[in-house]
Amino acid sequence: MFATVFDARWHALRWTWHDPDGYNIVSGPLADITLLGAAYVFVRRHNCHVKGCWRLGRHPVSGTTYIVCRKHHPDDSPTAEQVRAEHLAAGRQCL
Ligand SMILES: [Zn+2]
After folding, report:
1. Does 84 lie in the same domain as 68?
2. How far is the CA of 39 from the centre of ligand 1 (A)?
């Protein structure tokens, strides 16, 4: 039953692409589907850990293993002065 449905679709696809060998179907849309799948896996692996958030998660939350997006990070974005002050403080610790 399923094989018959697949077969009918395969023939319909081949007819749609005017491709008697089915080669262009395999290297065209099928490759696109594979790329989309890879993109999906990439997003699933790298998106924000907050449920339902699809932004790229690039900011680790200190004290946890969560990686979240800028919007969901508990800390505010540091100001240029803060970055500079912390950089100088870290430099002093090293000396
Ligand atoms: Zn988020």
Report:
1. yes
2. 18
